[in-house]
Amino acid sequence: MDGVVYHSQLYVTKDYAKSVSTTYDQAGLGELGYYDEPFSEIDWHIVEDSTKTVLGYECVMATADYHGRKWTAWFSPEIPVQDGPWKFCGLPGLILEAAEENGHHRFTADGIEQSSQSIYPIYNKDYEKMGRLDMLRNLRNFRDNNNSIIKASTGGMLDFGPDAPVQTEYDFLETDYR
Prior knowledge:
This protein is mainly beta. It contains one helix and nine strands. A hairpin with a 4-residue loop joins strand 1 (11-15) and strand 2. The radius of gyration is 19 Å and the shape is elongated.
């Protein structure tokens, strides 16, 4: 991406009692938002005759079209946890690897540890409830026009030059906001 580095504010929590994931993320200049999604939005198709080994576990392939991208996931029935990275869950085993078809995004487990330590939220209460598509559109607008937005919001006191070129090859994990 020509040296452009974006820092993420993305956090995903999963409530298995309600079958809902909650995503917390940046939504623009100083804007933080969150939205809920039911687990059922991911429609997995298991390919039982396709296997590979990840971290010493035999994994089975599953595919899904999810929010604008086609994903291939590898899950291990040996680990009976219906979870995985990011928003992924719902397969009969832990997802140890997932990649989208263009190779731009990939999640790969590099180790597994068991812990009894509590996990505490790392987000704060400054997040505003938003729609998923609105949040992604706002963030895309900010990423594509951040210098202009900062210049306008400071009355021209801060000017970082022209905006970065609009990203056409690489995009967010979800692309159906367009």
